[in-house]
Amino acid sequence: MWLWGSLTASGTPPSGCLYGAGARIELATLAGASSLGARLEALRGRTVLVAARDQLSAALALIELDGVVRRMVLCPPDLSAEHAPAVMRDSGADAYLTDAGADAGADAGATAVRGLEGLHVSSAAALRPLGLARRRSHDTEWILLTSGTSGAPKLVQHTLASLTSAFSAQEAPPGPLVWGTFYDIRRYGGLQIFLRALYHGSLVLSSAAESTADFLARAAAAGVTHISGTPSHWRRALMSGATARISPRYVRLSGEIADQAILDSLRHAFPQATVAHAFASTEAGVGFEVRDGLAGFPAGLVGAPGAAVDIDVAGGTLRLRSAGNATGYLGAHAPALKDSDGFIDTGDRVGGVINVGGLKVYPEEVEAIINAHPGVRISLVKARRSPITGAVVTAEVVLIEGAATGAQAEELVKGEILQACRRALAAHKVPMSIRIVPALEVSGSGKLVRPDA
Amino acid sequence: MSVRATITSLFEQVAREQQRKLSPLSDDLKLLASGLDSLSFALIVARLEDKLGYDPFDTAESFPVTFGDFVRLYESHSR
């Protein structure tokens, strides 16, 4: 199975379009034209870091490289220069694709990627003649990057089959679909939409340089029928006042917990649309999709026999097993991805990790900063529901006896704790409030009792 | 303190804390052009709930687009 081969399997070229912020490409033109031109053959069999900044350039590269290269690494635009060399090393990359200085020759991007060894190739959304017909020689591995707790990305290994397992079995929906997504297609959520759109229609790509209202205007002009984003993307869209420009049939949320308020707001904004929320992770793939308009997921899905995705909640975390699972992690010191039953632990502790507008907060990391204050005995960091970011961080603190007597002294300690947090932590991890409490509940096993854990 | 004055002072306080440049708060100022990010709005809404005792987003059918919409959302809930 390869992407271009399956898009043209019926004998007719694909009829859809890719809409970038600055250009539009008809997929059918890729039968005889290429964003890489003759350089495509130079990449055959190699491991390529796809590091185009522009989403349309990246989209064309993914279509063209599948079946041609051994392995392609989908670098999100925010991959830092600090982490890029490790990604290059762990993936075994021997080529680097960039759209910097696309018209200036094969190694024009070299200055932008100092320290990265290998063949430098530039791509452009302006197509050149392809030369030879497209030909499959490799089962290309798709490598996605995910953020670990330490900030260094993990390399997650997928195949076209695992990435398309959540929808390839489904029949094509009736009529041409025009998808739009707020996501970047180099991330799992966006990549899912990209692939669905290629198989079933067209896609309007977002651009980091564009306002939410401008993106929605472009999506409206393209006649968007299906559109996806995180709850935070959608809250932002609702606040832009521009949602009336589009009238989609299907609105999808994923990437964060969808609460009832955002589901209701979207149903009100798009009364004619199906509003669905999905759970997926880069490692475990698509877990489930819920279309009943209610927050949360139906408990009946857990342990359901004969389902395409096995769902299990063990030890307080959600575990998934399906054809959509990644194969493994890459790298010399990569941890095991699956447990002995073939399940992937999504790491989404049912009560543990706090998701602030799509950014994860590990309570222990914040507690460590708070507990370093000399007046603090113990602290508990937890989520507080927010209609804007899904959750914000709050903290409860037990002080050492005599550390602060009187309300004024307590306020002083709270201020010092907040200052320490602001110095050490990203803004979304800093507690919005600190409450001094006489004690925190500790379980029989000696652990802090965490809400919902 | 009126609802509007409470909201105005919280916008200013959170902007200071988050080191963001706040645009002058007029009723037709678009929230997304106010200089605040999503986290700032989340903090403002949580602190307003602590001060006023309610979160009108719970029952709001549409999201506020301008600062005036935001104030009206809270004022209409307080009545």
CATH C-level class of the largest domain in chain A: Alpha Beta
Which topology of the largest domain in chain A does CATH recognise?
A: Rossmann fold
β-strand number of chain A: 25
Q: Strand portion of chain B, in percent?
A: under 5%
Q: Tell me the span between the first and last alpha carbons of chain A.
A: 42 Å
CATH superfamily of chain B: ACP-like
What is the gyration radius of chain B calculated from CA atoms?
Answer: 12 Å
The CATH architecture designation of chain B is Orthogonal Bundle
- What best-fitting shape of chain A do the alpha-carbon axes yield? globular
Judging by the overall fold, what is the CATH architecture of the largest domain in chain A? 3-Layer(aba) Sandwich
Structure description:
The complex is a heterodimer of chains A (453) and B (79). Chain A folds into two domains: 3-349, ANL, N-terminal domain (Rossmann fold, 3-Layer(aba) Sandwich), CATH 3.40.50; 355-436, GMP Synthetase, Chain A, domain 3 (2-Layer Sandwich), CATH 3.30.300.30. In chain A, strand 14 (250-253), helix 9 (260-269) and strand 15 (274-281) form a beta-alpha-beta unit. Chain A is built from eleven helices and 25 strands. Chain A is of the alpha/beta class. Chain A is globular, with a radius of gyration of 24 Å. An eight-stranded mixed beta sheet of chain A has the order 2-1-12-11-13-14-15-16, with helices on both faces. In chain A, strands 7-6-4-5-9-10-19 form a seven-stranded mixed beta sheet, sandwiched between helices. With 79 residues, chain B is mainly α. Chain B has one domain (3-78): Non-ribosomal Peptide Synthetase Peptidyl Carrier Protein, Chain A (Orthogonal Bundle).
Keywords:
heterodimer; A: 453 residues; alpha/beta; GMP Synthetase, Chain A, domain 3; 2 domains; seven-stranded mixed sheet; 25 strands; B: 79 residues; mainly alpha; Non-ribosomal Peptide Synthetase Peptidyl Carrier Protein, Chain A; 3 helices; 53% helix
